[in-house]
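Q: I'm building a small set of examples for a reading group on sequence design. Run inverse folding on the following structure and report the sequence directly after it, with nothing in between.
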């Protein structure tokens, strides 16, 4: 069965696991990250992760407790600007 991954877009090269958990409202503040990560199953690209500072990059897939599924995507301003420029030329 194929899982539907919610796409989470970042604008930087990476986001740490602790920051990510706060971004997707799994935790309410950074202080909860260490405890949450220790007490829950978090898979990053299929491998168990217990590092709050783990850098998540474009293309990484996260599964939390086999019930929340996320994929990291990156918003690229250069691509958007190029499309706008091409549209104004036509």
């Amino acid at each position: 069965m194929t899982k539907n991954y919610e796409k989470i877009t970042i604008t930087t090269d990476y986001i740490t696991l602790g920051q990510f958990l706060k971004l997707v409202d799994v935790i309410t503040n950074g202080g909860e990250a260490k405890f949450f990560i220790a007490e829950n199953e978090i898979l990053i690209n299929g491998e168990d992760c217990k590092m709050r500072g783990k850098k998540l990059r474009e293309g990484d897939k996260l599964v939390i407790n086999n019930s929340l599924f996320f994929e990291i995507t990156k918003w690229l301003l250069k691509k958007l600007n190029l499309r706008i420029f091409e549209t104004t030329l036509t």
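Strands lie at 6-10, 14-16, 42-44, 47-48, 55-57, 61-64, 68-74.
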